[in-house]
Amino acid sequence: MKKINVVESVLQANDAIARDNRALMSGASLLSINLMSAPGSGKTALLEKTLPALAREYACAVLVGDLQTTRDAERLEELATAVTQINTGRGCHLDAAQVAEGLRGLKLDDIDFLFIENVGNMVCPAAFDLGEHLRVVLLSVPEGDDKVGKYPTLFQLADAILLTKVDLLGVLEYDIGRVRDDLSRINTRAPLIELSSTSGQGINQWLTWLGEQHRARATPVAIGLKDD
Ligand code: MG
Ligand code: ZN
């Protein structure tokens, strides 16, 4: 019983900071997106394609979570207005306090999109609200077609789901029908975008979705509605 109470209070403290993060980012009219997936699903590769395309119209910043190294930040630093690496040490997910610290180093009013690349992990990132506006979950073809059913919490919360590395569909045995079937039971709201950062398939659909989300969010802020 005690153990459960401790976990709950950690999450409550996290959620309070997340609400502050969200208010801060909404006030600056930026759209923040929490990218979550297993390690190696292609979050950084996706950002390498996404950031240069968005840069024509939008100012983008990235917070990158990893246990160790600045490798992902180095891959992205030329492509965005600001890139901050958050090293979590042993922590296998980002929490709202780490994001709050990352936000302090950014000029939020000058940013249109903030991408938060979470630590590669399909379990606990789902429990930690960072204050993001939208959650995007990546699932890569090499991981197998059974993951939606095995990690339902992550997929339940997603606003969009990206099936990545679809260039490997002809190489690996993979049943997209199984993914769609599992999703039909747990999340019918989020679009499933089939995408390959290698071939470029689906990138335009993803960019269109991002543009729509940005416009949809910018409008209520402009007329003064609370969007929390
Ligand atoms: Mg990465
Ligand atoms: Zn964790």
How helix-rich are the residues, as a percent range? 40-55%
Distance separating the two termini? 32 Å
> What is the third-level CATH name, the topology of the domain at 2-137 and 201-218?
Rossmann fold
CATH superfamily of the domain at 2-137 and 201-218: P-loop containing nucleotide triphosphate hydrolases
Annotated CATH architecture of the domain at 2-137 and 201-218? 3-Layer(aba) Sandwich
Mean pLDDT metric: 94
Number of helices: 8
CATH class of the domain at 2-137 and 201-218, anyone?
A: Alpha Beta
Overall shape: it is globular
Q: Topology of this structure?
A:
Elements: H1 2-27, E1 31-36, H2 43-54, E2 60-66, H3 71-76, E3 82-87, H4 96-104, E4 113-117, E5 134-140, H5 147-150, H6 152-156, E6 160-164, H7 176-186, E7 192-194, H8 203-222
Parallel strand pairs: 1-4, 1-5, 2-3, 2-4, 5-6, 6-7
Helix pairs in contact: 1-4
What is shown here, in short?
By secondary structure, this protein is α/β, with parallel strands linked by helices.
Detailed description of the structure:
- This protein has 8 helices and 7 strands; from the N terminus they run αβαβαβαββααβαβα.
- The chain is α/β, with parallel strands linked by helices and 228 residues long.
- The chain has a domain at 2-137 and 201-218: Rossmann fold.
- The chain has a 7-stranded parallel beta sheet with strand order 3-2-4-1-5-6-7, with helices on both faces.
- α3 links the parallel β2 and β3 (82-87).
- The structure holds magnesium ion and zinc ion.
- Zinc ion (ZN) is lined by residues 92-93, 121, 124.
